Amino acid sequence: MSDLLNTCNVTIMNSQRQKPLTPWSLIILFFVISISVLAAGFLYYRFQKKTLLSEKQLELSAINDLKIRQITQWRIDRIGHGTFIGENILLIRKYSEFLNRPANNQLKDDILHSLKSLTDNFDYCNVQLLDPAGKARLVYPDQDTFADEYLEPLFPGILKNGKVVLTDLQRTGKVESVHMDLIVPLVDHGIIDTSIVGILALRIDPQKILYPLIQSWPTPSKSAETLLLRKDGDKIVYLNDLRHINNRDFSLQKPTSTPKLPAAMAVVGITGTTDGIDYRGVHVVAAMRKIPGTLWYMVAKIDRDEVLYVLNEQTRMVIVIIVLFILSLGLFLGFLWWNQRVRFYREKYEAELNHQLLVKHFDYILKFANDIILLLDKDLKIVEANDRALETYMYSRDEFIGMNVTKIRAPETLSQLPEQLSKVNENESATFETVHKRRDNTIFPIEISTRIVNMDGSRFYQSIGRDITERKSIEDILKDSEVRFRKIFEESPFPMIMTGKDFGIIRANSSFCQMIGYQEEELMTFTFRKFTHPDFISTDELSLLRLVAGEIPIYRAEKKYCRKDGSIIWGSTTVSIIRNNRGEAQFFIAMVEDITLRRKAEADLLAAKEKAEESDRLKTAFLHNVSHEIRTPMNAIIGFSTLLSDPELSESEHSQYIDIIFQSSNQLLSIINDIVDIANIESGQVKLNLKEIDLNSSLRNLNKQFIYKEKKDKIPVALSTGLEDQEAKVVTDGTKLIQILSNLISNSLKFTVDGQIDFGYIRKKDSLEFFVRDSGIGISSDNIGKIFDRFYQVHGAMSRQFGGTGLGLSICKAYVNLLGGEIWVSSQPGEGTLFRFTIPYLPA
Ligand code: ADP
């Protein structure tokens, strides 16, 4: 069994990871954030650097322009000053006088004094007065410092042009310091002629004004400086004193071909701003320009490092911050990862603990499992089996292990094995039912659930089997009971249907189909509503819902059904509900008994009973009436007969009494006739006596009888005939026809107070239609249907007032029907009544 356990272990272990996953997402996140921050920092630095450098270049360019303007202005001032001296005629004549009379000490002192005043008040360090031949005649403060041979070649030209000349910066052998000279020709523009008196040479010390002017810088800076340059052949001569090295003697010179040297660019004519390397070999930002009217070039420059100093400082800070940020991010993400690892190993540890528990539990389950558990190799040999298997198949472990599974199969099921195996191989698992065999060859049904397990690269079948003998027998019982139910249902003489919980018909037996007229297939597309009479649908639905809710155990009702042919039948219905084991409604079974005949019999019975009661009531009324109707004329006959015996009766009284007795007798006879007639009709003894009659003359005779009464009652009775006299010979029972008309006219006279009565007939094709119309009290619609019933009188009391037994019209109806016709009435209360009846027209 431990192997089986291992199988599970393998499966469980395979589903778990041994190592935590490499946190690629964290690593990628780290690099993305770090690279983004670095790139942003770098771009910011580049942008700032470019901005700073271009700003500085603009500033240098402005400073350069300023310096050039100042130097140009200084030179203009100097030349202007020279021109001013050269045009001072008084001074010139004084100089001329001295040159002509050098022994005049007084004059010499005066001139020396004026020369001293020039050195004291301007930036001249030495002043020399020369004669027109260029020989120095007077020098202040001394001769040695002034002596300079470069001037001598210039004099002839200056004297010839008569113009003031400002020389370039010089450093000659005799004069050690750098200087420049302002040469002023002294010309006397006299009245007679113009004569050259001499030359005044004023030596300028650049240290005094020019160099400070160049070196001064508008903003504080550690490295900024301005360079004054001159091109000397293929060399650049730095003319001014420099900030970083001593250049009092023009010692700094560079070849014009020096690369990236701003000074070299300036002297080859490049103006503007640039990045370059200065005379010290340091990276600088510079602006260059030529000074107009001179051989000089000016370069203003500043060290790049100074320009970028603040930015570099900030950048260093930013770099530190970025490095710190990246480190923190790394630490944070590392912490997350570490946490993940800790959680992973903790979960793994817990899972391992659970696994151990599970293994123990699993082992326990296997040992005491109720199911058979087998492990088969690919050749279907039993590799492992649990105790339950050994017990079921009745083998010892040694016998069982290694046995082929076909040995425990019932031989008749072996043919199914390949198909079942291929199903398992295809889907990795399958469940099927088969039959197994024990050692004693007894067999039992079993449900097998097999799945494939892989162990150490080999495939095994792990089968769990359950003995389903009991289940099978229950299933068989259920199947039997299902068959029985179906049989009972199908063959029941009672109409039955089965519906789903949605009331849709699921099944209907043949009795039901016969009763309702639909085929079962048709019914299965309906709900019960289709064939239930509309009057009963809502009650049915409500009751079925109550049934579902469990409020009533069963539903019984007598209701009407609509058959397929449209006829209505009555059914006594009993509906019961079938629920599943969770108590949910599943089906309804309705059993219907066709009670149409019973219902009809009941209705007939009721009608008959009502009729009998009515008849009884009518007879009572009739007897009451008859007794009254008979007693009245009888009393008259008896009373007046007695009076007749009185000898003192007058003649008229005598004949009046006889008349009353006669009328009363007639009345009595008429009543008796009616009763006899109706008795004959009832017993079916009335026979027709058909013979030829002259209809018109019979009717005229009848009319005459009523004319007599008309005179008495003042109600005219008019006859109209529908046939000519010669055509009015017809075959019929004349006595009955006249009795009918006589009854109707008597009624009209009875119920008419004033107006008139018409009677007669018209011919209608094959029949004669008779009519009796009056303008009497009429008959209400409630009573009009009943007046032909025997003994019926509309108002008993009123009829009594008018007399009658309620038999006249029923006799008329019976006679009309006997003659082969129909009788009917139409009436309007208060306006009159019209009776019509037909008889066949049989001409004689
Ligand atoms: P009866 O002998 O009481 O007249 P009938 O059968 O002849 O019995 O008539 C039945 C009832 O029909 C009468 O009681 C009367 O109420 C009603 N009836 C018959 N004829 C007329 C009519 N012409 N006008 C009004 N009511 C009539």
> Which percent band covers the strand fraction?
15-25%
Q: Please tell me the overall pLDDT.
A: 87
| Count of alpha/pi helices | 24
The multimeric state of the shown protein is single chain
Determine the fraction of residues in helical runs and give it as a percent range. Answer: 40-55%
The main sheet comes to:
6 strands, antiparallel
Tell me, what's the shape?
elongated
Distance between the termini: 124 Å
Whole-angstrom Rg: 78 Å
Bound molecules: adenosine-5'-diphosphate
Side by side, the strands of the main sheet go 8-7-6-11-10-9
Flag low-confidence runs: 1-15
Number of strands: 28
Class of secondary structure makeup: alpha+beta
Would you spell out the secondary-structure blueprint of this structure?
Layout: H1 2-14, H2 24-86, H3 89-100, H4 105-121, E1 124-130, E2 136-140, H5 143-146, H6 155-161, E3 165-166, E4 180-189, E5 194-204, H7 210-215, E6 225-232, E7 235-238, E8 253-255, H8 262-267, E9 272-277, E10 283-290, E11 296-303, H9 304-307, H10 309-368, E12 372-376, E13 382-385, H11 387-393, H12 397-400, H13 417-427, E14 429-437, E15 443-455, E16 458-467, H14 469-491, E17 496-500, E18 505-508, H15 510-516, H16 520-523, H17 534-548, E19 555-562, E20 568-579, E21 585-594, H18 596-644, H19 651-683, E22 691-694, H20 695-713, E23 717-720, E24 729-732, H21 734-750, E25 757-764, E26 767-774, H22 781-784, H23 796-802, H24 808-819, E27 823-828, E28 832-840
Parallel strand pairs: 23-25
Antiparallel strand pairs: 1-2, 1-5, 3-4, 4-5, 6-7, 6-11, 7-8, 9-10, 10-11, 12-13, 12-16, 14-15, 15-16, 17-18, 17-21, 19-20, 20-21, 22-24, 25-26, 26-28, 27-28
Bound molecules: adenosine-5'-diphosphate.
Adenosine-5'-diphosphate binds near residues 747, 792, 808 and 810.
